[in-house]
């Protein structure tokens, strides 16, 4: 899904803004963050140069880098896409494999280790990243668990939030630790095989 580009932070009077310039600025900001540029090191001048626009063009849209990064993160939001219904095992494997592919290939996913690694020291921006990027991904797995509990495929006593933390966290931890989950011991299939018996054991 293509990036959604929010309206710039402020809209003072002046010439109509170029959508192309806004896209270039947002794209340059995200690219620099993915490359590991910290918030402390990120400068409006460097973003303008990377985007190929003048500083005046940048400052007409965003008053400072906090506002710029905030809008850049907002552009990463994608609504959750439900997993096609199969068995509970297959639904979880599909969701985790989608999560892995997203984390490895998308701009939003590739920002994950950088944010956890302290590139962004701002609590407000970290929270925005979680809301725009992480929560929609968690919602997919949460819905699988709630649906399976409602259909009695999983026991009603299963805690969906605790299970979500284990399932979701297993994949993200491995991605942040090694950059991939290609190893057999940490593949989506293996993670589900380890976790699913424990979930079903709650029925006993």
3D architecture notes:
It comes from Actinophytocola xinjiangensis. Residues 43-62 bind DNA. Pfam families: TetR_C_11, TetR_N. The chain is elongated. It has two domains: 16-75, Orthogonal Bundle (Arc Repressor Mutant, subunit A); 88-198, Tetracycline Repressor, domain 2 (Orthogonal Bundle). It is an all-alpha fold and 204 residues long. The longest helix is centred in the last third of the chain and has 28 residues, at 123-150. The protein contains ten helices and no strands.
In terms of per-residue confidence, which ranges show pLDDT below 50 for 5 or more consecutive residues? 10-16
Name of the CATH architecture of the largest domain: Orthogonal Bundle
Helix content: 55-70%
Instruction: Give the number of helices.
Output: 10
The average pLDDT score comes to 82
The CATH superfamily of the largest domain appears as Tetracycline Repressor, domain 2
Q: Could you give the distance between the termini? A: 42 Å
Beta percentage is under 5%
Q: What general form does the structure show?
A: elongated
Q: Kindly report the CATH topology of the largest domain.
A: Tetracycline Repressor, domain 2
- What string gives the helices and strands in order? HHHHHHHHHH
What number of domains? 2
Give the class from helix and strand content and strand pairing: mainly alpha
Largest sheet: none
CATH domain class name of the largest domain: Mainly Alpha
